[in-house]
Amino acid sequence: MTGWLDIQAGAPAAIRHPAIIGIAVFYFVVVSLIGVWATRRTKSASDYFIAGQGIGIVTLAIAAMASTLSGFAFIGGPGLVYSVGTGAVFLVLSASITNTMGAWVLAKRMRLLGEARGLITVPDAIAARFRSPAAQGLSAVAILVAVIGYMATNFLALGLVIDAMFGTGLTLGIWCAMLVTLSYTVAGGILAGVYTDLFEGLVKTAASVTVFYFVLKAGGGLAGISRAIAAVDAAFLGPWGKMPAITALSLFFVFGLGSLGQPHVAHKFYMLRDPRRLKWYPALMSVAMALTLLLYVGVGLAMRAKVASGVAPALVRADDATPAFVLGFTPSVVAGIVFAGVIAAGMSTVNSFMNIGAAALTHDLPRAFGRRVSDELRWGRAWTLFLSLLAVLVAQVSGTLVAFLGIFGYGLFAATLVPSLAIGLNWQGATREGAVASVATGLGLTLVFETLAYFRVFTLPAGVTVSGLALLASLLVFFGVSWLTRARAASQLDADVKLVMEV
Amino acid sequence: MTTRLALTALVLSCTAIAGAYLLAFLPGGAPPWAPWGLAFGSAGALSSMMALGAVRGGRIRPVPLAAAVLTFLVVFASFALALVLPPNEGPGAPLLLGLPVRAAIVLYGVGLVPILFLPWMYAASFNADTLSDADLERVRRAGAERQP
Question: Who has greater pLDDT, A75 or A217?
Fold first, then answer.
């Protein structure tokens, strides 16, 4: 997540090529037009938070893909491949499975819960499943902590890219990124977000496929790339790259199972117009993700091959892999599409987090305390503005703080939401006590161990990641506490929720 | 396979991963066979979670069951081969579809092969096993009845 922060000021002058800047300006114009269009159609809290349950399946799948793959997929990911080889692919390797798994585990149940209860947030689903305001409140707190970090990270990264392209300076770049994203999010809500995500997803996919063509062309095919790398660094192309096997497999576990706890993706299931269209969701999402991840895998390998064969100098920063490749080995128009794709990736992710963060403050936390906000649309917009300002301030105060907050977002979502949401919606024996204990365990362990590791007070042994440990502990606590309190399970399940879990 | 069996498989998978993590705390670090716990556990966790999600009324139908079992076999076999095969990634090493053999098995086996069957098995089973019009109507009725 934080890896793409390092596209620092002082980027090559080639990034200011007229074609690149022209494509970026065109991109901003299209996003603005979508925002204006969506604003005119946003009239209620349901429109603002779940697009009035009016989204088609193709839009849903592409938008979910766009918000899943942040700027990390275009900058940090290829940089990681450049650094540690094939081991870096374990972060995204499970994408071939997670979309179908998510459809079976979450999509149908959440969409049907939305149908029966009119829910609008992920903590809503947890509260409905367990009749537990405490679980709703705790999961909303976890979401807020992660959302601030994600938003600040992406604002800082977007500011760096805008500064590199337009020479605005970092501070103004950050504010520009925030204002553009905020303007369409606060006015058009998730409706604007979903349709800009659709556009941004198409930009990302086009950029990825095009760049992969140039990867193969520049490297002499995958075989040419492999031979060039093998000549100088055999371990780079081992099955785990330069990571220990246990670390790579741990990443596969966290990013695979953890995909079921990502609220910005799960929340989109509420928006689907017709639940019967879910039939094609895994196919659309899997193909779109596979195409969009070609750049992630290809660019890091191609740049390593170019450096190995002496065609390109060694990169000072691994995160320069994508900028260096597209500026050095593709036409300016392709580079423009890629940089627009980087901006698209950041903005689509930020937009989703603005929305779920505002929903946590407007909807989930008040309900956890037994209160209801009278005008959720107005307050949703106000909290979106507040969160954006807070994230921009965090982004400007300290790059170190941003990096720290950005590190654990994915793991925090996974450890706090997977047991109560993904298993809870599929196991009638789960209990409210198990849900509350697992959310608290995931939240506590992630915050404590990430903080200790960040300040180098205590680090886990090689191969054990904080996110893996926290996810595992919250799962085991969920099973254990639910088993101990199993006598209460049946009484905590409403009839309509039970029906949703059975069909 | 029932809900209970899927849950048992999920708990066993988590236990295997926990075992691998515990081994990493040993003095001198994790032994060379520790990754087997994660290879088995991660493949099992994803497959059993998929099976759990596909259960209807306490039972799982043949197509989703086959999808879960096939996923486990493909993922675990790919990881197992990568762990068992001797390293051979140096200059002149044989390539499989452009990559050294062990990397190709993992990247193509886990990263691509499941796309060839999973989404299509989901779609094939959707009308019969996953969500019918009658189910949808029952949920809508239950929701309407709950409204004050």
Answer: A217
- Asked whether the beta carbons of residue A464 and residue B53 sit closer than 8 angstroms, the reply is no
Task: Tell me which chain A residues have a C-beta less than 8 angstroms from the C-beta of B114.
Answer: 96-97, 100
Segments of A287-433 assigned E as strands: none
**Is A100 close to B103, i.e. CB distance below 8 A?**
no
Does A231 contact chain B (CB < 8 Å)? yes
Instruction: Compute the distance between CA of residue A385 and CA of residue A382 in angstroms, rounded to an integer.
Output: 5
Q: Are A234 and B29 within 8 A, CB to CB? A: no
With CA atoms as reference, the chain A residue closest to B3 would be: A427
DSSP state of A371: -
| Burial class (CB within 10 angstroms; exposed 0-12, middle 13-18, buried 19+) of A281 | buried
Model pLDDT for residues A228-287, shown as the tens digit of each residue: 999 999 999 999 999 999 999 999 999 999 999 999 889 888 888 888 888 999 999 999
> Domain coordinates of chain B in residue numbers?
3-146
- pTM confidence score: 0.91
Q: Residue A230 and residue A304: Cα distance in Å, rounded?
A: 10
The reported pLDDT for the residue numbered A88 is: 93
Put simply, the answer to whether A89 touches B71 (Cβ < 8 Å) is no
**Complex ipTM tops 0.90:** yes
Residues 207-226 of A with CB under 8 A from B: 221-223, 225-226
Tell me what pLDDT residue A3 has. 40
Q: How many CA atoms lie within 13 A of B80 on its CB side?
A: 9
Q: What mean pLDDT comes out for the span B114-136?
A: 86
Question: What ranges in A167-220 are assigned the alpha helix state H?
Answer: 170-219
Residue A14: which pLDDT band, with cuts at 50, 70 and 90? low
CA of A311 to nearest chain B CA: how many angstroms apart? 19
